[in-house]
């Protein structure tokens, strides 16, 4: 009897992606499983679509796994690519499926901070009819302000394009200079320190890797303008959150827009929750119908390719550099094999 391969997805996938997957595999969707329950599903799974922490222990519990399809681009802090490569397991991601989407929310947070939109919303609901005089503080134009982008990669570039349309002056710092953006006149390079000092709005778009962990700490926050706003759409661990809370409470910077946190969900007792000069969103950078469909289609296509014994398209760069893998598990493709 032919046993269909098993795909475990930690996300509810768009129906177009489900259709592609269900043609060849059993798909188990487990959005809210505990780690133990997920591991129980992984014991006979051929593919994972998700954002789980995939380390050696995870791989030991998933002996049939052939592909980890990361539902997003920020796999660096979650997936042990080296361990997967050693075991012949592909790691894929969804580059460019969400760059514009994350950039749109970045602009959203910038505008929320500049114009105090959440404060104004609360004012209309709770106080407007009671106050004779308008007691709301004035906002700020973003036109003419300097936007500092830390990491001018796929998302950073899309942010620059949108910010340019708002009339902002754009500076960036990256370990590799982005000649395309510079030639287009989109963004000018600055050193990390210059970027911190010059920015009215400072937005983070680097991956969380050892070199970027706590890249923004007390020293960096003290270099920023007291009128500056910090936006983090990348990963919580890039900012020293304790130092940030101090900076916000003591006025070293004016405010922050945060989509990501050191611990997620953000603990109820986090000082950030009570601060008026912050805007908080629950890690929703890629959460639009369109982006989630594109991401699901990319993951599904790669999973099916591996199950068929083909190489996936969106292999992560660290693994692509090591190709051809000597012995990747999907070589024969379970779809071509009879059951065991
Ligand atoms: P990307 O294209 O790889 O861009 C990241 C940029 O940062 C690259 O240009 C990279 O240079 C640069 N960089 C790496 N290390 C650096 C360092 N130490 N100093 C300065 N620059 C450095 O990635 P992306 O697609 O734009 O995504 C960026 C991050 O956004 C992801 O890693 C993820 O964590 C986060 N994200 C968050 C959400 C959300 O929902 N909030 C959604 C999607 C992504 P090299 O290319 O030379 O390494």
Description:
This protein is an alpha/beta fold and 340 residues long. The protein folds into two domains: 131 residues, Rossmann fold, CATH 3.40.50; 182 residues, NAD(P)-binding Rossmann-like Domain (Rossmann fold). It contains 13 helices and twelve strands. It has a seven-stranded parallel β-sheet with strand order 8-7-6-9-10-11-12, with helices on both faces. The chain has a five-stranded parallel β-sheet with strand order 2-1-3-4-5. Helix 4 links the parallel strand 4 and strand 5. The C terminus is likely disordered. Bound molecules: NADP nicotinamide-adenine-dinucleotide phosphate.
CATH architecture of the largest domain: 3-Layer(aba) Sandwich
Query: What are the segments in which pLDDT stays under 50 over at least 5 consecutive residues?
Result: 336-340
Number of domains: 2
CATH fold-level label of the largest domain: Rossmann fold
| N-to-C SSE string, H for helix and E for strand | EHEHEHEHEHHEHEHEHEHEHEEHH
Summed up, the helix count is 13
Condensed summary:
The protein folds into two domains: 6-97 and 289-327, NAD(P)-binding Rossmann-like Domain (Rossmann fold, 3-Layer(aba) Sandwich); 99-280, Rossmann fold, CATH 3.40.50.720.
Layout of SSEs?
Elements: E1 6-9, H1 15-22, E2 26-29, H2 35-42, E3 47-50, H3 56-60, E4 67-70, H4 81-86, E5 90-92, H5 99-115, H6 117-126, E6 146-150, H7 154-165, E7 169-173, H8 179-183, E8 188-189, H9 192-198, E9 201-204, H10 218-223, E10 229-232, H11 241-250, E11 255-258, E12 278-280, H12 289-307, H13 317-320
Parallel strand pairs: 1-2, 1-3, 3-4, 4-5, 6-7, 6-9, 7-8, 9-10, 10-11, 11-12
Helix pairs in contact: 1-12, 5-7
The site of NADP nicotinamide-adenine-dinucleotide phosphate has 29 residues, from helix 5 and helix 7.
